Predict the 3D structure of the following.
Amino acid sequence: MNKTPCASCFNPKSTHTCDQCGVRICKKCLQQNAASDYPLMQKVPAILEKEIFCPSCFDKDVLPLAQDYQAKEQAAHNLTYFSKIQSKETRLMSRKEPAITIKDCHDRQEVILKLAFMTVEMNFNSMIDVDTVSEKLRNGGYQTLRWSGSAVPVNLDLEKLELREKRRLS
Ligand SMILES: [Zn+2]
Ligand SMILES: [Zn+2]
């Protein structure tokens, strides 16, 4: 029986250990984290793979990364993109960056979101030439689809684009 009190509230029943700094903490004070909280990340940093934190390590080491992730995930959901077949719209846009790719997704939406997240991480505001393909996979008795895709990250003048869009609709 460990008699070290909780490092945060001094409760003598410290049932857990912080995965980051090793202090003992009680059930009420521990902060939980899971790598699955960051589904769009290609490579979750080692610290975000740890699960149990004391409040001070959580605030200092996890919270800033978690908030950064959430902001990027939000931006990925709202990212402007054009698919490959919209070549008429994107014909004149310059493609300086090489295409990025994503593999092994469950559906088309996941491919697009992961491409968008990568684009946001690279500091671009849009993507063009978005292309997704599915491949049949035989999994024991039944078939599933595995999705992959590619896109070219670009920085577009979104205000101008929006004006043009409005003009076209009116
Ligand atoms: Zn405590
Ligand atoms: Zn700690």
